[in-house]
Amino acid sequence: MKFTSSIITPATKYIVRLACLLALSIWLGACSIRTHQFPDEDYGPESPVDVSQVPDAIPQKVPYSPYGNPDSYTVRGVTYHVMKDARNFRERGLASWYGLKFHGKRTSSGEPYDMYAMTAAHKTLPLPTWVRVTNLDNGRSVVVKVNDRGPFHAGRIIDLSYAAASKLGVLGKGTAPVEVVAITPDAPGPQVDEAGFPLWIQAGAFSNARNARQLLHRLEQQAGFKGRVETDTRPKGILYKVWLGPVENTRQLEQITGQLPRWGIHQYHVVQ
Question: Which of 1, 147, 148, 191 lies 20 to 30 angstroms, CA to CA, from 98?
Fold first, then answer.
């Protein structure tokens, strides 16, 4: 039997077109499915990362960040008032942690979140603030730099980085009762035990090696700093860190960190 185009009525064309659109939407939906077991939850790396050698954050006396320190802000209908001073701050409650879901994204202070660094998020402490966090279940203690806002879950007082949570033994349970005590250095500049020298100052970190070399070259040529590019292999790729130094004593450390803002470096880390 021979069919002609006259058999394909407008109604038939509409049904065919509708069926094609339906099939296309199903195919696109299947392609967009996220493969992680808990797509709406945070998570760590597939294989545990050894962070036992990651040093505690070193408290420093630096200006508060121009970002993340409004008088108040509102999240999910709740208004939080940022503290003007962290002196004598002490708090007990539940700690949680955050990982790959936010890794590399900007924190409230403007720094990129590094889940392998000793940092944390708090709802009201000024940014940055250094705090000692003690797990009340096992007695473990670490020093972290608070550079982000959160956690915005009832009953939780601090969100730890993956590294900090691992060292405190929080990863497995997800939360743990902790005590948070602010560390407020009284002397100007970074507070470092002389026995910890020599040190290095991390002035930047990049996923692109060329960007790291350019920053190091600029600091060496314009500011007279000496340094090197340190490579750090991560699950997501290689991170190229710009290290200045070595720094041999506290006076030299204060001199270098005091000059960094003049050369556009407002966020830095002291590493051993």
Answer: 191
